Amino acid sequence: MSAEATNPEAHPEARPELRRRGRTRLDLRRLGRAALLGPTSRDRLPDAIGHVAEAHRAHHPDADLSILRRAYLLAETSHRGQMRKSGEPYITHPLAVTLILAELGAETTTLTASLLHDTVEDTDVTLDQVRAEFGDEVCFIVDGVTKVEKIDYGAAAEPETFRKMLVATGNDVRVMSIKLADRLHNMRTLGVMRPEKQARIAKVTRDVLIPLAERLGVQALKTELEDLVFAILHPEEYESTRALIAAHAGERDPLPAIADSVRSVLRDAGITAEVQVRPRHFVSVHRIARTRGELRGSDFGRILVLVGENADCYAVLGELHTCFTPVISEFKDFIATPKFNLYQSLHTAVATPEGYVAEVIVRTRQMHRVAEAGVVALGNPYATATPDAAASDATATPDAATDPDEERVDPTRPGWLSRLLDWQQSAPDPDTFWTVLRAELAQDREITVFREDGSATGTISLPAGASCIDAAYAQHGEAAHGCIGARVNGRLTSLSSPLSDGDTVQLLLAQDASSGPAAEWLDHARTPAARIAISRWLESHPDRAMATTSAARAPLSVVGARGGGGNAVADLPDATVRLAGCCTPVPPDAVAGFLVRGGAVTVHRIHCAAVAQMRAVGRTSVAVHWRATADCRVTLLAESFGRPHLLADLTEAIAREGVEVVSATVEPPVEQRVRHTYTLQLPDAAGLPALMRAMRDVPGVYDVRRA
């Protein structure tokens, strides 16, 4: 495999940013030589750390650099004599990682921990030494990175690897910031590895670290990691894309002229703005080429407009849509509704008289910082002082940092990360964790739905394709086991119904705290929290899991924790008796019993279709009879005209009769008519007629009958 085919940096003419990376590589060579010469006098920063200091001061002019000097001296001394596989002194690696973070605007504490991030793992330096010299906060981050570094990256260890990584990220997002910068530098220097090891590291980077970078909002790291992975795993497609970019570089680019027109329009409107042409990176060009076919000159980049205030963004948008021809289908407002990774911008596209279509991104300068650096740009999320003070006080010791085992409240933690942290603790095994983690990270977008619960309102963030089941578990946790239906945008619907961005959902819960989900809920659950909670309940209630599987009539049901063996007795000593969910027999129905796997006896009404099937397959028939007790379980069908609050009114009518709702399903309305299916536990079979009359008396209900 040629160097050009595996290394995007081999073609710096293809993208301006790559020239900067080339300079960075030269800087690292100089850093290596400076490191070999050892530290300088105590009065000034060592030459090797000067590049980091310069980048840091660009974002934090008042930062105290003395702690960076002390951290570098400790790192350089402890790593002295160690070499990387590339032949460079090992100290060049923590320096490079720190430089990456400094360019992104990381605060002093993060940079200090970054310089020291390999010392505890690879040298004689201890955590106690780090704590004594640099304080609890730096020690906390270094410890987190060290735990991540100790993780085995073998294929068999991947599930547990990323479980630990996730926990470390949740305890302090700066741990993952350092890890991502660490992986970026290692990917830049991956050429010294064997091809098979390059491929393995690239795959792990693609499957987990790039999605994590995306979700933490660190776009600058994410895009470069994408290009490096692309070059290793898809060399032919990479080379084709490189050729496209190189060919475009030799042609007239229409975007600078369009950018000049935008500047002129905004200047005439009195709007102060900075207008840039932003070239697309390799993977972005490749994706555009696959979706659009032949590329035009304006497809190789986008126009970025930076302004001072949020209101200026909308003023710019108004001028663009007034003075150019807007492509309305391309408009997206991520300021009013930010993405899950903190990203905010206005996206639009305009057509020029020459026939070019230029994509335009409008954002404030602060939004731009967050868009590029994500959580890295937000400073110390745990500091109680002002951000500027926190940036210059790397030895701050918030109370939450004193206990390394205590999870801290992170105001920058996105909702998706909180969800992952919640369910990873209850994931039953590493393989399940790994499967759902990759599925969660593969979600390319999220939706926001508005929840309605009496007088309370709020929002729920869910992955695209999520259903009412996912919303139920996101809002109610394990209490969602008792969900019996949902109302979406005011209309009753089944729990399997998918939700769309902006939907309003009201989730209806049974009063019976012992109820639980059906096995088929797993077919419609998309979030890890929902799938794991459902799976755990079904594993702990195998009898109810089997009952719901046999009850194929109801597409989504809630199964009560109480069994129906309480009324029927089989003429088989010590046999467990279950009432079939398909026909829900009650006294004094004529019934038949059949022996099923596990030694249980399933009881059906004598006219149930399942009876003939059981006999046809040779199931052993067992005589059964009813106990003297009068309580029973029954399934009723209620036909009604659709109207608001109908399900709630029906459930209330059932509750007034002293009847327990074991399960309930609501089918989607057909011609304004709705069918409800209830499985009910009656304290006395004699009360069934009165119950059915009470249900028929509910306005809108025109028929109630046995299933």
TrEMBL record:
InterPro entries: ACT-like_dom_sf, ACT_dom, Beta-grasp_dom_sf, HD/PDEase_dom, HD_domain, NT_sf, RelA_SpoT, TGS. It comes from the Bacteria. Residues 90-187 form the HD domain. Pfam families: ACT_4, HD_4, RelA_SpoT, TGS. CDD domains: ACT_RelA-SpoT, HDc, NT_Rel-Spo_like. Residues 1-23, 387-413 are annotated as: Disordered. It is an enzyme of class 2 (transferase). GO terms for molecular function: GTP diphosphokinase activity. Residues 635-707 form the ACT domain. Residues 387-401 have a biased composition (Low complexity). Its EC number is 2.7.6.5. The keyword Transferase applies. Signal peptide: none annotated. Residues 10-23 have a biased composition (Basic and acidic residues). Residues 445-509 form the TGS domain. SMART domains: HDc, RelA_SpoT. This is GTP pyrophosphokinase. It comes from Streptomyces avidinii.
